[in-house]
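Forwarding these from the shared drive since the link keeps breaking.
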Amino acid sequence: MTEHGAHHPAPTPADLLWPALNFILFVGLLVYFLRAPIIEYFRARVARLREALQAGARALAEAAALRAELTRDIESLPATCARLRADMHALAETERDHLIALGRRAADRIRADARLLAEHEFAAARQALRAEAIEEAVREATALIRRALRPEDHDRFVRDFVVGVGAES
């Protein structure tokens, strides 16, 4: 073994030939076996990068279009709000008129029903009063006849009745 600070002789070209030949052979084998996969890797990478760049360009264009659309929408927002307010007012007025018309029709129907019911109640009350008046008149007439009827009148009525019944048979 040589010591650490010992003097080494300078390498000769023959000493460098084998390692150089070994390195060249190693590089040649790497190129021979790995050339196609490395080329394919870089082709695929270039294709992925191009596709990513195109997707980025498309996204940028879409973002710019969306920004322009949003800018137009923001600029037209006051007019849109005014139009929506006008539409809501018009719809509210239409609905109000419709509800008022429905209320008037319902009120007319209620008035007509009330008028009809009042007429029926009036007719029923008139009929009841007429019946009560007739009943009272019959009661009064019966009382008058009973007071005015004497026993000889009663006997005559019975005789006339018996004669009338006997004649019919």
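-- next protein --
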Amino acid sequence: MKRGNQILGVVALLIGGASSAHAGFIGTQLSSEYFYPDSETSYAPAVEAPPQFFVGDGVETVVNVEGVTSIAVDVSDTSILFDFSTTLLNPRWGNVPFNGLIFNVVNDVPLNFSSFNISSNFEDFDPSRVSFSNSQVTVNWAGLAYDSNTMLLINFETDAADVPEPATMTLLGLGFVSAIAMRRRGTKVIKPRQGLNH
């Protein structure tokens, strides 16, 4: 009975210790902050509401820049959608080293992205304007023209091989523990009887 309790304890550890596979943004707490004229200087006339959020359904934050342009930011598990609205006619972002948003992971849940692609009607926006790591995403639209119809979608791709499924790992662990337990107990295989006809 003692050995049975030990096996149950190992199984409980395997099940309880299985961490959730996390590849994208869902469940991650992010901060968003507008930076101008470089990536080191927070821009006070831009207000993020809210400045920190957990990624879930719908728009996570709206950034109001100088009271004339708002940017609705909708983050899904593997993408960020920016929807621009402005009261200005033919506006253009100031052409400085950095003019845009920086998102940082707040709750130490690393992002697991391997690459990205963009889809946008933001003229001249190219991949060189986006950078990411396991804890940060930066988006720089310095010098670009925009209007109330401008949208930008960044789709991130994950390397699925890097993220083991917790259920799979738990099942493998259970199978391994069961095999060891059966071997140690000396479980006998019952052979079918031969020669009996009914």
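The radius of gyration is 26 Å. The CA atoms of residues 98 and 138 lie 10 Å apart.

- D.
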